[in-house]
Amino acid sequence: AAPDPHHLLVGYILSQSSSKFQQELVDSGLAYQVQFGYQTQKYTGPIQLFFVPNPKRLKECMKKIEEQINMWDSDNYFTDEQLETAKNRMAIDEIYNEEKTSNYVHTVTFWWGSANIDYYTTYVDNLKKVTRADIQNYVRKYIKGQPKVAGILMSSSMEKMLGISSYDQLFQ
Prior knowledge:
Elements: H1 6-14, H2 20-27, E1 31-38, E2 47-53, H3 58-69, H4 80-99, H5 101-114, H6 117-121, H7 123-128, H8 132-142, H9 156-162
Antiparallel strand pairs: 1-2
C-alpha cells in the first residue's frame, strides 16, 4: 500500500509558528530550532525529529520534547485552522513543484519509485481528506511508544562543559 499524506502533514502542523511544539520549544528558549519530517517510501520511511537545543537548557529541552510528543495525539494539540493551513501549504508546495520543469521529472520518478504514479496524481485530493483522527492514528501507530534511534552531536568542549558523556545522562 502507498503511504498516506497525513505522515507529512504532522511536520507541516508542527512547523507553524502558532503550533504548541514551536511555542513550547523555540519560543520558550529551550531550542533554537525544531523540525519534524517523514520521508515517503513505498513500504516504510524514516520519521525524523531534528532539533538544536539551547545548551544551557539541554536536559529541560529533552524532557519537553518527550512531553510534547506524548501530547501530539490529544484532541486539542493542534487547531482545525492549523490542520487546514498545513493542508494548504502542502498543496501549494506540490503545485509549485509541478511548475518547475527541471524538478518535475525528478518528482515524477521519485513518486514512481517510492509509491506509485496513482498515489502522486491523486496526492492533493487525498491530502484534503485527511482528518484529525487520521493524524492521531498515525501518531499512535508510528510514533508514541515506538522504538527509536536517538543521539546527540556535540563538541568535546561542550561535553565537558555540560558534564554529559552519554545520551542517557540527558534524562537523569
